[in-house]
Amino acid sequence: MAWITLLLAGIFEIVWAYAMKVSEGFTRPWPTAVMAVTMLLSFALLAHAMRVLPLGTAYAVWTGIGALGSFMVGLLVLGEPATALRMLAAGLILSGIVLLKVAS
Fold it and tell me: Are the C-beta atoms of 38 and 19 separated by less than 8 Å?
């Protein structure tokens, strides 16, 4: 159950990162509100998952999910470039998440 909670925390991290981007420096109220709510949910779920999972594993996986998810949103929604080096970096983050899961 802790892993599912951590996955949900990571998904909320992706949402708040995207909402922060589209809030245009907190000048748009709805994206700013979405960011604040999903940020709180993400942190609460991370804290809950950390009751069972080791700190280093939980935090690294949470940030990895957020980083990869935000990277994908950037590519698919915001039209950011998918260069070979950026794709390699994303693959390395993914391999780190998988290894941390296997090691736990």
Answer: yes
